[in-house]
Predict the structure.
Amino acid sequence: MAKNRWGLFVGGALLSAAIAGGWSVYTRRAIERIPSAEGLDDPTIAQAYGRVAALPQMALMRRLVAQRATALCAVGEAADIGCGTGLLATELARQAPDLHITGVDLAAEMLAQAQEHTSRMGIAGRVTFRLGNGNRLPFEDRSLDLAVSTLSLHHWADPVGVFDEIARVLRPGGAFLIADLRRDMPPPGYLLVWFATKVVVPPTLRRIGEPLASRNAAYDPYEVARLAQTSRLTGWRMTTGPLWLTVEGKMIGA
Ligand SMILES: C[S@@+](CC[C@H](N)C(=O)[O-])C[C@H]1O[C@@H](n2cnc3c(N)ncnc32)[C@H](O)[C@@H]1O
């Protein structure tokens, strides 16, 4: 009986300390947005990001995004903007055999990994990669059926410029899905990101404060809605989850 009381006491004390610690971390979070670097071209950072991007949680996120994107459009020409190591492009190719996907990224180091990955998977003919900036997309006007992007929006120096470019390159009725973290994530999500930064990620990413820096650079849904409203995107709607948000839809117009 006495042993049980001690157990309850110690357990209660540890739980209270964990809640107090978590709350103190949460209340010290950045409220204002802190912009981050645009391209991830440092070779060691790109390699470390490649390892994190291959984790099963990230694979699940990509699978869900690809399902949603291919429900909007599964045939024709697609672009993945800020494609990083090319894993979303690969997942799109797997889910939609009638799509040809071009991954665009500012960082040659990321594209080298992407290229290697698609060659290894034997789908290099269906997925191509181009070095480029989202605000000067290397496509003709109205030439694409689908534009997607994950975890890149918070890096863009000119987000409205990228939205305008997406509007320019999509055909009328062309679909888009831009998914990113949301800065106003609730306490459990924030603590998860904080814990991942301090404990889970490789030391290279920990040194640059990732993924917390990405959370700090991310927008909240109102900010993203303002960006979309200011841009030439039409037919968009916003969806939100505990950690993420999306701007998605189909371009309206002749
Ligand atoms: C966090 S990584 C995300 C990569 C990938 N989309 C994913 O979900 O794993 C962000 C990527 O966006 C790229 N990026 C940042 N700003 C960009 C821009 N303006 N145009 C194209 N790529 C950009 C970076 O180089 C980096 O590879």
Notes: Residues 145 and 174 are 5 Å apart (CA to CA). The chain has a mean pLDDT of 94. Residues 38-40, 53, 81-84, 87-88, 104-107, 110, 133-135, 150-152, 155-156 surround S-adenosylmethionine (CB under 6 Å).
